Amino acid sequence: MTDFFKGIPEIRYEGPDSDNEFAFRHYNPDEMVMGKRMEEHLRFAAAWWHSFAWEGGDPFGGRTFDRPWFDDSMASAKLKADVAFDMFRILDVPFFCFHDVDVRPEGATFAETTRNLEEIVDHIGTHMESAKTKLLWGTANLFSHRRFMSGAATNPDPEVFAFSAATIKTCMDATHKLGGANYVLWGGREGYETLLNTDLKRERQQAGRMLSMVVDYAKKIGYDGQILIEPKPQEPTKHQYDYDVATVYGFLKEFGLENDVKVNIEQGHAILAGHSFEHELALASALGIFGSIDMNRNDYQSGWDTDQFPNNVPETAMAYLEVLKAGGFKTGGTNFDSKLRRQSLDPEDLILGHVGGMDVCARGLKAAAAILEDGGFEAAREARYAGWNESFGKDLLQSDLSSIYDQVAKGGIDPQPRSGRQERLENLINRFV
């Protein structure tokens, strides 16, 4: 144990009437929800990057946090890992997620960087031998370093493509070694700023080839975790090839990967794409590519991905409603891709940000389960489409235009508008949230 979180107790469930800020009021990991423990439903994960690697900067100012591991030494990387597992223990989270650059310093050469990663992975593995917390997913940071300024897989320079492929291999090896349940492709700069200097077709083909190599390599090393893509719009590239769930699905279909790759959906990215979080979740489920989620929120007065801890129970309930309808998480979970505000300097702030987010998710999950168990919401939606379950509706989908024309021309078919009853359904949902 380190002394970074000195004096902070392990967080335990005390119930909604507790006035102890270092306690869960709603997240009770052992509470049964729809026949399964709450912890198993939610599968919480802490993000290594925002929790331990982010320095508190923004476009107008630099670092505000003062952490003892903020340098490029292996000793500091190991201290950061030690502190991370202290936090995981305090919060009792079952999972964590990381990028390679979050856990290891950059070396003078690719070989040295790889050795650094391998050494720190062994150090993390030692912690995991005695800790409850496991790895939900790993990924490679192919966007921060200046070499990736024009993308990684989509870069016009084949040497950058090669460097990126090699980096992904090292991160897949690390994820496999640590028993990661998933591996994520997070295309931070896989897009373009302007068509004036971009061969869009070529770049898409490069991205498709890279993803195919990832799938092939996973099979080669016997990695049975799920490969995930995280959709993200206009961040930071003006046009992203992985804009939203629908765009990613079209990309997967183009390269024949729709059965191998699923999506990790972030709330903030859904909003920036002009969708609701639940829309993206429902679409991913309908397309058969739902995998995992990053749970955060945006500031709706800002046009950027602010990565704040969730605090809106109705929004969270609608999200978990779609997760439950999709059958729940298989290999995925709820990763807090959430960071402190740059003025929240104290270790206590980091713990309490997670406590609040976990409580909000717990309330959302229980509300979603109550909605499903009540049955009224789903029954109303099914009633709206009931005609398609009758012989007339079924026959229409097996017919052709001429036959349908003959049927309508005979008379007797005179459709009248029917209310969608949106306000009634909104009121119904509000009973539970």
TrEMBL record:
<dbReference type="GO" id="GO:0000287">
    <property type="term" value="F:magnesium ion binding"/>
</dbReference>
<feature type="active site">
    <location>
        <position position="102"/>
    </location>
</feature>
<keyword id="KW-0119">Carbohydrate metabolism</keyword>
<feature type="binding site">
    <location>
        <position position="294"/>
    </location>
    <ligand>
        <name>Mg(2+) 1</name>
    </ligand>
</feature>
<feature type="active site">
    <location>
        <position position="99"/>
    </location>
</feature>
<feature type="binding site">
    <location>
        <position position="266"/>
    </location>
    <ligand>
        <name>Mg(2+) 1</name>
    </ligand>
</feature>
<dbReference type="InterPro" id="IPR036237">
    <property type="entry name" value="Xyl_isomerase-like_sf"/>
</dbReference>
<dbReference type="InterPro" id="IPR013452">
    <property type="entry name" value="Xylose_isom_bac"/>
</dbReference>
<dbReference type="InterPro" id="IPR001998">
    <property type="entry name" value="Xylose_isomerase"/>
</dbReference>
<dbReference type="GO" id="GO:0005737">
    <property type="term" value="C:cytoplasm"/>
</dbReference>
<feature type="binding site">
    <location>
        <position position="305"/>
    </location>
    <ligand>
        <name>Mg(2+) 2</name>
    </ligand>
</feature>
<feature type="binding site">
    <location>
        <position position="266"/>
    </location>
    <ligand>
        <name>Mg(2+) 2</name>
    </ligand>
</feature>
<dbReference type="Pfam" id="PF01261">
    <property type="entry name" value="AP_endonuc_2"/>
</dbReference>
<comment type="subunit">
    <text>Homotetramer.</text>
</comment>
<feature type="domain" description="Xylose isomerase-like TIM barrel">
    <location>
        <begin position="146"/>
        <end position="276"/>
    </location>
</feature>
<protein>
    <recommendedName>
        <fullName>Xylose isomerase</fullName>
        <ecNumber>5.3.1.5</ecNumber>
    </recommendedName>
</protein>
<keyword id="KW-0413">Isomerase</keyword>
<dbReference type="GO" id="GO:0009045">
    <property type="term" value="F:xylose isomerase activity"/>
</dbReference>
<dbReference type="InterPro" id="IPR013022">
    <property type="entry name" value="Xyl_isomerase-like_TIM-brl"/>
</dbReference>
<keyword id="KW-0460">Magnesium</keyword>
<feature type="binding site">
    <location>
        <position position="230"/>
    </location>
    <ligand>
        <name>Mg(2+) 1</name>
    </ligand>
</feature>
<keyword id="KW-0479">Metal-binding</keyword>
<feature type="binding site">
    <location>
        <position position="269"/>
    </location>
    <ligand>
        <name>Mg(2+) 2</name>
    </ligand>
</feature>
<comment type="similarity">
    <text>Belongs to the xylose isomerase family.</text>
</comment>
<feature type="binding site">
    <location>
        <position position="337"/>
    </location>
    <ligand>
        <name>Mg(2+) 1</name>
    </ligand>
</feature>
<dbReference type="GO" id="GO:0042732">
    <property type="term" value="P:D-xylose metabolic process"/>
</dbReference>
<feature type="binding site">
    <location>
        <position position="307"/>
    </location>
    <ligand>
        <name>Mg(2+) 2</name>
    </ligand>
</feature>
<keyword id="KW-0963">Cytoplasm</keyword>
<keyword id="KW-0859">Xylose metabolism</keyword>
